[in-house]
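INFO  loader      accepted 1 record
INFO  loader      residues=134
INFO  predictor   begin
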Amino acid sequence: MEYFVSAVLTHPHFAIAAKVVLTSLFWIAGLFGVFKFDVIVQEMVDVKLPAPRLFAVATIACQLIGSALIITNFAGLGWLGAGALAVFTLLTIPYGHAFWQFEGPKRMHEFQIALEHITVVGGLAIAAILSVNS
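INFO  predictor   done
INFO  writer      dumping tokens
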């Protein structure tokens, strides 16, 4: 069993699959934004960001380029993609999931989303470490 697990974990296709899964949240959201740009602009308006169209473009670019850099580690820049997505993910907490502004079940729901975001940042940190060491 140990041999099988080791063989799977060290296979290059497994690493690519893991990076695709890790970034799926971002590239799916980025592709959605490309095809439903007005929805993303409205999200920026809803959280009161200035220049909502510019922030929508920046969000989509961060999601797609960051994901691509992690998956491909192009020019050894997987760490940059992971870092950009980590910063983006952390910034969504105060702007999109400010749990401290709510009461009752809504507060708990937003808090759980914030914790999930922090967990994703942990996965992105591991991806950054692995991109530097590969």
